[in-house]
Amino acid sequence: MITTLTMPEVGETVTEGTIERWLKKPGDHVDKYEPIVEINTDKVDVEIPSPVTGTVRELLAEEGAVVAVGEPLAIIEAVAGEAATSPTAVEERPVRAVPEPSGPAHDRASPEGRRRATPRVRKLAQELGVDLALVKGSGPQGRILEDDVRAFASEPGKPPLAPFATPVQQEEETLPLTAIRRTIAKRMAASKFSAPHAWLVMEADVTGLVRLRHAQREAFRNREGVDLTYLPFVVAAVAQGLRENPLLNSSWAEDKIIVKKRIHIGIAVATDEGLVVPVVHDADRLSVALLARAVNGVSERARAGKLKLEDVQGGTFTVDNTGWFGSIISMPIINQGQAAILALEAVTKRAVVMDDDAIAVRSTVNLCLSFDHRVLDGAQAAGFLRSVVGRLETYGPDSPLE
């Protein structure tokens, strides 16, 4: 049986990817789930696994080529009886039905030559202060390789150029846009100007949660190998709040609203390359302890540039831990394809007037919700946020984590 591996959909707004590096060549054996190719999108770098065990028969796209989602990447001859996984990414058919490749994975070079180098090469050029317009590429179709950039930077008589444009009267400088910064700008603008954002903030008294974390943090780190932060508690509260308020777990589709039945929460992670949003799938089915491990895992992979394809797929709601930077109030922009985003602000101590009119020092946190006013109104958003606040306020020093 012949299986055609196609460019998978990494996210709702990602339409193409660049072949970064082939890990297999024609004639090589490949096991099911074994990485076969590295691809780069404006969203993330990922390894694409083989959907079957078999032999690589043909590679349909060269390294450096830009391939649209759904277009063929490689042909694999599966062993007898082998069934392909990930139906959205592969297509199975008899040998006689396999057409000859007609160049669907051509290199869509722009006039500026932006496609002559992968994002990794462009980053290296920026770090070394090399103008790619002056570099002759030795790769397929003149693509510039990392070795080309390094060779140009070290060539006698051709010192690297300054990474920034010449300052005007030494008072300003021009920063070139990286691929991820360009994409973030494009998506944030598209989200902000297409979805009418409304905003709501509520305060939670998390004194009990602070005591719980203080009491169990060291033992949890020794047992689990990860730090016990406030984020998994918030993700757990959000996940349960979404079960009670499913309209927050939906998306706008012009003539309809699509309510997602599963709860996949994106975690905004700041990296050296920019903001990425890996996903914790089925978050409502996980305990706080499991969420702590899952959040730590995707965050570490994001910062290391080792996210898996499934790590960035399927997000239905996003949580942004802006409090990590010391922020106490913010207005996050909704991730495209979702209906809302929650920002967790910094936990701070302040004097609070209690029910008996006594004044006490309590630990509090602001939860800031941005929501798409096309999908829901303030009452529904407030109902969701109240449920999240209520859950966070029920934690105490003896609350279970499992």
Number of domains: 3
Strand content: 25-35%
Low-confidence stretches: 87-103, 105-115
Q: Figure out the total of helices.
A: 7
Helical percent range? 10-25%
Topology pattern, helix = H, strand = E: EEEEEEEEEHHHEHHEEEEEHEEEEH
What's the CATH H-level homologous superfamily of the largest domain?
Answer: Chloramphenicol acetyltransferase-like domain
- Rg of Cα set: 24 Å
Supply the helix-strand structural class: alpha+beta
CATH class of the largest domain: Alpha Beta
Main pleated sheet: 8 strands, mixed
- Under the CATH scheme, the architecture of the largest domain is 2-Layer Sandwich
| Mean pLDDT, all residues | 84
Q: For the terminal residues, how far apart are their CA atoms?
A: 45 Å
Could you characterize the architecture of this molecule?
The chain has about 400 residues and is α+β, with helices and mostly antiparallel strands. It folds into three domains: about 1-95, Beta Barrel (OB fold (Dihydrolipoamide Acetyltransferase, E2P)), CATH 2.40.50; about 115-175, E3-binding domain (Dihydrolipoamide Transferase), CATH 4.10.320; about 195-390, Chloramphenicol acetyltransferase-like domain (Chloramphenicol Acetyltransferase), CATH 3.30.559. Helices cover about 25% and strands about 25% of the residues. β13 (about 265-270) and β14 form a beta hairpin. Residues about 85-105 and about 105-115 have low confidence and may be disordered.
